[in-house]
TrEMBL record:
This is ZAD domain-containing protein. Keywords: Metal-binding, Zinc, Zinc-finger. Residues 59-83 are annotated as: Disordered. It comes from Spodoptera exigua (Beet armyworm). SUPFAM superfamilies: Glucocorticoid receptor-like (DNA-binding domain).
């Protein structure tokens, strides 16, 4: 799942630090941290997929240009069956 490029990218993203395969620092990641990264990647994937679904719902709601808040609530409930 994680090749060396993805690991470096994940460490940059989730660790908030700069790492490179070509720097002079250690090249190894312990199993615990590797698992952390995999869980973080799984979380990001899940969050982005959910965000995409939510924004699709929002776009549908706004395209109706309705001022009624109740309509948005009903549409969200209808979309839940798709999960
Ligand atoms: Zn570690």
């Amino acid at each position: 799942m994680l090749d060396s490029n993805n690991i470096a990218e994940a460490i940059r993203t989730f660790g908030g630090i700069e790492v490179s395969e070509n720097d002079d620092y250690p090249k190894y990641l312990c199993t615990t941290c590797h698992n952390f990264l995999q869980n973080a990647l799984a979380f990001r994937k899940s969050a982005q997929e959910t965000d995409t679904l939510l924004r699709q719902t929002t776009i549908l709601d706004s395209s109706e240009e309705s001022d009624e808040v109740d309509d948005a609530d009903h549409n969200l409930e209808d979309e839940e069956s798709d999960y």
